[in-house]
Amino acid sequence: MFEDADYRLAVVDLLGAVAYGELSAFERLVDDARLAPTVREKVEMCAMATLEFGHVARLHDRIRDLGADPFGAMAPFEAALDLFHAHTAPSDWYEGLVKAYVGDGLAADFYREIAAYLDAATRDLIIASLEDAGQADFAVRHIRQAIADDPRLSGRLALWGRRLMGEALTQAQRVAAERDALTALLAGGIDRPGLDLAAIGRMFTRITERHGERMAELGLSA
Amino acid sequence: MFEDADYRLAVVDLLGAVAYGELSAFERLVDDARLAPTVREKVEMCAMATLEFGHVARLHDRIRDLGADPFGAMAPFEAALDLFHAHTAPSDWYEGLVKAYVGDGLAADFYREIAAYLDAATRDLIIASLEDAGQADFAVRHIRQAIADDPRLSGRLALWGRRLMGEALTQAQRVAAERDALTALLAGGIDRPGLDLAAIGRMFTRITERHGERMAELGLSA
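^ inputs. structure came back:
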C-alpha cells in the first residue's frame, strides 16, 4: 500500500496528528497536575503523562521509516490541538480529571476509527499509542468520590463534558477541512475500502455513544 | 547502620529531598519547555524531564523499604524547593537552559557530597538518580550557539547564573537549619566519619568550583 504516494502521505499525516496529540496531552497533564489536592495525586497524574510521552518517540520513528520528518508531520495539527487545549483549560482539579479521561478517550476513539482503514502495522502502532495510561480508573475513582462528597459538582462537570465534546468536534472538523490526504484516506482507494456518508454518520454515532458511556462511568449525564 | 534510628531518619530525609527535587525539576523542565523556539527543542527538553521523573519511583521504593512514607519524607522539602523555583522562573528559553544545566548541576553536587557519608546502597541509588539526563550537552550546545549569534546575551546569562547560585545557597541553608537529622548526619556518629567545620568549608569550595566550571563550559563568567 505504501507505493501509493497518497496513502503514504495520509499515514504520515495521521501519525503526525497522533504524535502531536500525545505530546500536547503530556504537557497538559503535567500542567493540570498542579491542581492536584496532594503531592500523591500529582505524582499519579505525572506518571500517566510520562507514559503518553513515551509513545511520541515510537511514532516519530515510524514517520522517519516512511521517509518523512516527524516535526514536519506534526506541524499541520499544532494549531487545532493547541486551540483545543486553550479552549478547555480546566479551572480546577476535577475538570482536569474529567478532561484527562473524557478528552483523551474522545481523541483515542477518533484515531482508532481512522486506523481501521490502515495497514496492520500502522494500525497496531496507533492502537498501542492510544492505550489508556491509567486515566480511566484514576479519574473514575476520584470523580465518583468527589460527587459523593458534594453532589452539586455533577451538574457543573456534566456541562464541562459537553463542552469538551463540542470543542473536540469543532477542531476535528477544522482538521478534516484542511487535510485533504486524511479525508481522501477515509474515502478509500482502488485496493482499500472507504467510507460513504452513511458510514461516516455511523462512525460519529459510535464516537458519541462511547463518549456517553464514559460520562456515565463518571456518574455524569452526557 | 540502619539499626541507628537517627541514621535511618537522616537517610529517609535525604531520599525525600532528592525525590521531591527530581519531581519539581521534572515539572519545571516541562514548564520551561514551552519557551522552546521550536517543537523539536521542546521535545528534547521534555524527554530529559521524563528521565528525571523516572527516578522518583525508585527513590520512593527505597523510602518504603526503610519503613517510611515517601510523601511524608518529601513534605519537609516542598517549601524550600518550591520557593527556589518560584524565585528562579526563567524569562526566556536561554535562562531556562542555563537553569536546567547549572541549577540541576548544583543540586546534584550538593546531594552527592552528602551521599559520600552514607552506606554504599543508598549512595549508589542517589548517585544514579542524579545522573545528568542530557541537559549538559543540550544546554552547552544551544547556549554557546546563542552567544555566538548575539554576544550581548553573555552578560545577562552570567548574572542569571550567579542568581541561581545565590538562591540555591539560601534554600540549602534554610533546609540545613530546619532538618536536624540531616545536619547530624554530616556531623558523623560512632561508626561513621563526620565533617568538622573545616571540612564543610572545603565542601562548599568544591561546590563553588564545580559551579564555575559549568559556567565556563557555557562560555559564561561565574
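The mean pLDDT of chain A is 90. The domain at 5-217 of chain A is CATH 1.20.1260.10 (Ferritin).
thumbs up if we can close this ticket
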